[in-house]
What does this fold into?
Amino acid sequence: MTINLLRGKTAATRGLDQDPMLKGLTIGEMDSHIFSCPSCSRPLSEGTSRCPACGVRLVLGVKYRRAAAILGLGFVAGILLGGVLTASVITLSLHDTPAAAAVDVATPPPVPAAIPSAAVVAVVGPPQAAISALSGTAVVNGRISVDAVTLSTALADPKTTTIAIARALRSLSADAALGTDLVGRLATWRDAGTAPGQLGDFYRTMSKTATLALRGSLNDASGYRRSAVEMEAVLIGLRQVDDASRTLAATIDLELPPVVLPGQ
It folds into this structure.
């Protein structure tokens, strides 16, 4: 039996030796370059282009079809990568060109030199509001003149009631308030001189005298008569302030309404 086993082993070894693909291939030899067939797993040496057992074609130890597929995939990937890089370069170039054009457009055109024009001379004069206020003082002075006559008539009659005197004083107080408002509008006229100050002092004195008189009781007849006499003393200055208004109006050729002063 031992002899038969040795014979069988020798026969098997001889069969491997007769395989032309395995000639020169020593099993177990160090540094031998061997790979297995990807189809039938048969040991093959490097450089074999076709398996003798199953007949499959090989390229570097890989099936021909699989190798062709890998090469085709690499070719497609290369084309795609090249297209992406080309598109990126073109896009960057297009972005840079408008930016340069925008810089040129943003540059402002040269401004033509201004043509010298004739100098405009501003006409300086009193404000229109001040002129209207000056005209109004003449109207107020006319009302004061009328109310002054009423007050003098009431004082001249010994039978005049306190109510009549108080009514005349209230009218004069209202005239003074209106005159004070007009003087405030004259303040915008810088070249008005002393006229606005004279008018303001006169109207304020009238208002103060009337206010003190009207605080008294209507039963104090003698007190109201004394206040009325004090008001008459204040109204004597009406002629002076009216003249000041007309003098100021004459400087701008403004004609004021006529005022009939007491005693004319």
Q: What stands out?
A: Residues 31-76 form one domain.
